[in-house]
């Protein structure tokens, strides 16, 4: 898929609240076969570690009791280790607001 069609698809999924359609395999599916050996490490650095860091930062904001507006890319909500899952595990209620 080309970059433009990929981005349009991501937007449509986000707008419809269908974040699960953007699992890690879809988003990173254009990788070449020679990256397969390093794929898990790549996801850890480029996505999962960042998700943990952003979830921790969001939790810091939530604990302050103030109102914040946080913008997070749609891919960080996809997969089983998305920011929404991490915050839910910490006991927060996370819901899509349209």
H-E string = HHHH
Count of beta strands: 0
Instruction: Please state the CA-atom Rg, rounded to the nearest Å.
Output: 15 Å
- Helix amount: 40-55%
Q: What characterizes the major β-sheet?
A: none
Structural class: mainly alpha
Q: Looking at the structure, what is the overall shape?
A: globular
Residues in β-strands, percent: under 5%
Q: Low-confidence parts lasting 5 or more residues at pLDDT below 50? A: none
Assembly state here? single chain
* Arithmetic mean of pLDDT: 81
Distance between the termini: 27 Å
Q: How many H/I helical runs?
A: 4
Question: Which SSEs are present, and which pair or pack?
Answer:
Elements: H1 3-16, H2 24-27, H3 39-64, H4 83-89
What can you see in these coordinates?
The protein is an all-alpha fold and 98 residues long. Helix 3 crosses helix 4 (83-89). The chain contains four helices and no strands.
What keyword list fits this structure?
mainly alpha; 98 residues; single chain; 4 helices
Please outline what is shown here.
This protein is 52% helix and 0% strand. It has helices at residues 3-16, 24-27, 39-64, 83-89.
């Amino acid at each position: 898929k080309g970059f433009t069609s990929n981005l349009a698809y991501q937007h449509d999924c986000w707008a419809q609240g269908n974040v699960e359609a953007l699992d890690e395999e879809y988003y990173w599916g254009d990788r070449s076969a020679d990256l397969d050996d390093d794929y898990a490490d790549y996801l850890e650095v480029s996505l999962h570690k960042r998700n943990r860091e952003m979830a921790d930062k969001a939790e810091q904001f939530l604990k302050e009791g103030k109102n914040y507006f946080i913008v997070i890319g749609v891919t960080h909500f996809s997969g089983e280790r998305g920011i929404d899952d991490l915050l839910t595990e910490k006991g927060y209620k996370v819901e899509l607001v349209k």
